[in-house]
């Protein structure tokens, strides 16, 4: 099917799901977003982007940023050493749980729960001095949008509600699993979460994962095997405690954020970014998951 | 690469891993198997099978049986109702843990941990009267080996060491999540685990998962979407508490057993069965995982 | 204060608490007991008993039996070896939890949670052949009531609802922490729980704990230090996950049962048995705890 | 027995236990203390103190301070409101665990685990501005030692190793269970732990608990019922995850610290402070517990 038609059809079919669920309510800047919004974009390997609905409306990327930070760490010389500090297994616990950390001596289960993302941010911070700046620079280049930046209001709100993440970071520090001072890591972490982008930009920025590691300018960010492995981690760990359910329904590597965004990868074909702020009980966009479910059903492009 | 050459190359490359790890020691019949054995078979969509090493030597299928039992339940009218009784999320706990069950009111995390497999067996038992007989009949037909049967010595050994599974079953019964009397479910469960097959037979029996639901006789066992979903559950939950690691290294849906067998699926291409009794700390075959890692690296046939 | 007057005053003061809470509902025989009942008895060291309300009305002793079984085990030659199989620490979990058992390799936290009591019963069963018969014989002698026996209706009900306890027992068996076959231990365990007594009889039967180990006939059951230690375990572990709260409010060693009975010990002075079927969320009698709270406040006889 | 003779006899009997175990090693100031030291003091109700061994040698009070902070909070108008923020149940987990906090929504199990003591410190800080100053003032008055103060070296060491406690505090803050800014609470908390006293001083300072709430100057700090209740919390929660074992062996309310100190209370009779730096696996002084065990055995002064 022609992709624009496909997107129109999907938007139509998920109309009833838009507005379901609740916006994340832990910070005001997210809580007051209209849950009736819905956008979806598909980026093809050559950089062509198609979209539907609010696909050009910006939102904060939140945890979708985690997949890029991980890729930037792995792309660096010796980046694989990050796996000494964070695991690759699904957590079986909510994204901000400390229980697992205590049972496993301060080693987070995977890089996509908050504790793991703090470790990855710490790695990038230790290597570059400023993980958030590094990330923004990469996102601007890949998406071709030089104005991508942090939303200062969201940032202030995040910073004011970071006690839980602070606890996670100090807890890991107590096990010797923090290299940079905790306040600095936290600052860079919340800056990453507060970056504002739209569906088109996120889909473009993620294309290197569909291209087995090749960036939009043709250079290689990740080895082929590394790119596959990032996809594997997205599939097993990318949607919080619903990764099994997401694999079952959608069957694609995906990473979600509490703003209602989900970035999914069809290896060798395209990326898909969908955004709708209403979340289900596990923190994933209701309409977003439904749209991706329709997408793989209509195209047959699940990895399975 | 020509598959026979590929298999020879893999066998050569993993030679150092063969013999590593320990055979499962909870029952004598498994403990005394030679960890120096290694077999691998690839079954193509048309039923052609290639093998290397001990690929025709029989072993007990153990937990690899769980994927077939699940498929047989899902294939039945209303089979999806099994998902009311068992989840689809990775467990984050060892395969025989009771902790999660207690926190989640007697609903096992997924059909591939022991508790979940007991529920699936119970469903098949309730529907057919004899889950093990149903399974054996299916395995015989798909593999073309009419003599496939239970190893009575392994069965006796399993039955004599089933206190933990018995505890799991009664625990679920206490939450109302058992339909058949516990002793009967346990009996059928251990019979399934004690079925003896070789790599070629298992690879053939699993081909319906590579063929999107179509059996060897051309009839449909599962809907296309159901087959994809079984593959998704294998990828996220099929290798105990190492599913993330397996997805990362191998990148294929796979189901392992404590006898050292692993059945992996390349959707649309083939199945692979590897067997070597030496297990790593998480219960997966050391040489088996290494061989599958080589397989996807050499062929590029990871799903990612 | 004169004890009969004291009891009358307490009954008056807790009148508003009688009927609060819910009767245990897991078996019909307990669920239909009138929560408006209330009885209380005090047994002095010389065997004089005073009572108020329904103090002569029989009820099933349920978990109050656990303290006697423990004492009978400890009284035997080498009885202290039971501490190799069960701990002495408060559990921090509900009385029938399996979580702790798994984290601590099949060793229950203390003898008063169900798992621990199963171990203690197993010890007595292994030593005597019939733990329940041994217990009944002891209770008859101490209370001077030769007709004390099991309520067959309660027993049948308990036996039909014992999946959880069966799971606990098989789980411990899987760790090698069961000497007698599980069905036999369970049978003797539920028989103990189903013994029927009244407040006067229970208070009399417990007097050896107030007399530092001396039975009603003047012979010694336990060494002085052993009797003190049983009291210590009652105080730290006797009221499920509310032992801290009970120590705080009441300040006496006590053991409760889901029938609404509580046996408390004032070392060197007396025993108190109170019964009222309405339970709080943690399984202790609402009016019973309130009455004991009044008792220690009015007499000053807390151990602290 | 004459108390000086008793103390001499105990010191003699536990000679073999002195030096066993290891000094706390998380901060250098504690790690290098000689484990061969042993001191014990008994304070009678009238303020007479007897001692043996190193009973006049100062050590940092560490967690023994927690019992005084709790008493100072309870002594204040409305002090009972602290129980809305912290429980009174034994924890069943190590003293610095976060697991329980997460399962129980940021409410620590009891005031004697670190998380609970941070809440109690927060209460005193919120009420007085400086919890540590308030505590030091109280300890000086009760012990008659106006020079009691913080050991600055220990303080610096504690402050430099407080990531875990910082994690606990931020974690509770994320549940809204911190009133004072976390850095301030932590500062006052580590100051309390770093106070230096000797056995005689601690025994004197704790006499109000043996006198049912009456201070050394005859004024009342706590109501009689409050004093009993503090003793109850000490007995059920005062010795970390070994409270049941301590109640069983010693049978007295007691509070231990990782410096090897234990303060025990014989209600209506005396207090006992014992100190020896070698700790068992659960963080209690090996020789200290042995000495208290001998003490209650020889005197018969257990509360049971």
From TrEMBL, chains A, B, C, D:
UniProt cross-references to InterPro entries, sorted A to Z: Beta-lactam/transpept-like (IPR012338), Glutaminase (IPR015868)
Segments passing through the bilayer: none
Coiled coil: none
Reaction(s) this enzyme catalyzes, per UniProt: L-glutamine + H2O = L-glutamate + NH4(+)
EC number: 3.5.1.2
Residues that bind substrate: 63, 114, 158, 165, 189, 240, 258
GO MF annotations in UniProt: glutaminase activity
Top EC class for this record: hydrolase
Keywords: Acetylation, Hydrolase
Similarity comment text for this entry: Belongs to the glutaminase family.
Assembly notes: Homotetramer.
HAMAP family xref list: Glutaminase
NCBIfam families: Gln_ase, PRK00971.1-2
Protein name: Glutaminase
Lineage, top ranks: Bacteria, Bacillati, Actinomycetota, Actinomycetes, Pseudonocardiales
């Amino acid at each position: 099917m022609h992709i624009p038609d496909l997107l129109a059809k999907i938007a139509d079919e998920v109309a009833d799901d838009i507005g379901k669920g609740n916006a994340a309510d832990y910070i005001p800047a997210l809580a007051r977003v209209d849950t009736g919004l819905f956008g979806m974009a598909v980026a093809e390997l050559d950089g062509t982007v198609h979209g539907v609905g609010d696909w050009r409306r910006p939102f904060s990327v939140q945890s979708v940023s985690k997949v890029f930070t991980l890729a930037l760490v792995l792309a660096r010389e010796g980046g694989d050493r990050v796996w000494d500090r964070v695991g690759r297994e699904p957590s079986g616990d909510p994204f901000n749980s400390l229980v697992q950390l205590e049972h496993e001596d301060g080693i987070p289960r995977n890089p996509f729960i908050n504790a793991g993302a703090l470790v990855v941010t710490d790695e990038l911070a230790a290597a570059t001095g400023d993980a958030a700046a590094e990330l923004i620079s990469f996102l601007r280049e890949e998406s071709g949008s030089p104005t991508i930046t942090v939303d200062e209001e969201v940032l202030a709100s995040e910073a004011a509600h970071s006690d839980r993440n602070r606890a996670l970071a100090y807890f890991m520090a107590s096990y010797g699993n923090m290299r940079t001072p905790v306040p600095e890591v936290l600052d860079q972490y919340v800056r990453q979460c507060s970056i504002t982008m739209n569906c088109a930009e996120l889909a473009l920025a993620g294309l290197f994962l569909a291209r087995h590691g090749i960036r939009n300018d043709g250079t290689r960010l990740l080895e082929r095997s590394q790119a596959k492995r990032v996809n594997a981690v997205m599939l097993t760990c990318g949607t919080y405690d619903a990764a099994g359910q997401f694999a079952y329904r959608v069957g694609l590597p995906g990473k979600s954020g509490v703003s209602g965004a989900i970035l999914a990868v069809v290896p060798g074909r395209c990326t898909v970014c969908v955004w709708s702020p209403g979340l289900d009980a596990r923190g994933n966009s209701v309409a977003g998951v439904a749209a991706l479910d329709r997408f793989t059903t209509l195209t047959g492009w699940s990895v399975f």
